[in-house]
Amino acid sequence: MDHTPAKIPSPLLSLVPILVLVALLFVTIRTFGSDALSGGSQVVLLTATAVCCLIAMGYSKVRWKTIELAMINNITGVATALIILLIIGALSGSWMISGVVPTLIYYGMQIIHPSFFLASTCIICAIVSVMTGSSWTTIATIGIALLGIGQAQGFEVGWIAGAIISGAYFGDKISPLSDTTVLAASVTDTPLFKHIKYMMITTVPSMLITLAIFTIAGFTHEATASDQIAMYSASLRETFNISFWLLIVPIVTGILIAKRVPSIVTLFISTTLAGIFALIFQPHLLQEISGLPVQDMQSQFKGLLMTFYGSTGIQTGNPDLNDLVSTRGMGGMMNTIWLIICAMCFGGAMTASGMLGSITSVFIRFMKRTVGLVASTAMSGLFLNICTADQYISIILTGNMFKDIYQKKGYESCLLSRTTEDSVTVTSVLVPWNTCGMTQATILGVATLTYLPYCFFNLISPLMSITVAAIGYKIKRTNEKTESIATD
């Protein structure tokens, strides 16, 4: 059955739903701030979907059944990602309460030295972000502590915030636990670990350059040691049973990833293993979470299940540490899942109406070579970050807009997924009115434009993506392992 619209909308008319989306998101974000993801953005997406459907049915004569089928197909396409997000919620809770993440933070902080403070800050935030899969959590917890340490040592807040954000977004970008990483892979139909592996080509050089800059800056700054590191480490040890044995969990997870075990299986095994270690090493915390007065099997069972599915909070006597060890579990992923479903409805309506194809036809004119294709994708991702003020929506729209173009030109989907992450995930925090930019500026107490010049990883990543495309290094095609740009 042919589902081609009877009348294809012009690119200008096709932009109407997107303009409605941008305008409503602007008002929503101004009204709700970082809480816009709790429902406001989802309602806006459905409203923009309704506008798209009205144009499709009225102008393009598209049947409702066709639009509905496109929405269902889109949601079906991200079903695996939604399951992964739920497991990630359980995993992040179990890794934290079992003591895995606190152990990594504890030992990671031991490497801090005044001359290497900026580079160490970047590395620590990267490690925590990889383990938690959340740049927001990393910045709001260990980032706050490191900001205080850096200020005590005399560093400017712009440099400190830049190091924190660079490390946090590096970890967020390559972590299999990150919702943006899972989303970018799923929207472009790319296997998660294949997506992460291919990102290393641009992400690792960007991070090495960033660390080099922070190392040089650290050596040119005279700073004194601070007792805050010792205090924070002591609080971690008093709350958790810190042990090298807990490192077995990330090591096993790494082995499973290296052996290319399916994402859901890997994450489930890792969550289960962390749960077992929580029972062994942190029974007192499980009892505290359960709220039961006696430490027995019932309290352990209840506390463990609550760690998997719900929000938890541990009182440590240290406000920063309280924020760090709090978890959201599976329930904390529901806003993201809700947003993805609404965004898939919008993408389905845009596709069925022919509007997405009409808009992308404009970009095709500038895509004669690989570098033009990648540069157009990167610029579109940045543009959508600025217009929609939300990284999740920008990832979904970028992936949907360019997916067919990459397929028609014979490129593997991992090139699109990598470019999307290189341009959308990392630049969202650089836009003052984006949810990421607003949130991090509020959390750190540093204006977006103050830390922007020092977020070297975030600034370098999209440029590295375009540079690698221009060189033609490991540009993958569906019919060949690699192909040089010279053959385009």
Please sum up the structure shown.
With 488 residues, this protein is mainly alpha-helical. The protein is built from 24 helices and no strands. The protein starts with 10 loop residues before the first helix and ends in a 17-residue tail after the last helix.
How would you describe this structure to a colleague?
Helices cover about 70% and strands about 0% of the residues. It is mainly α. It has a domain at about 80-330. Helix 9 packs antiparallel against helix 21 (about 415-425). The radius of gyration is 23 Å and the shape is globular. The two termini are about 35 Å apart. The model is unreliable at about 480-488 (pLDDT under 50). This is Na+/H+ antiporter NhaC.
Any descriptors?
488 residues, disordered C terminus, 24 helices, mainly alpha
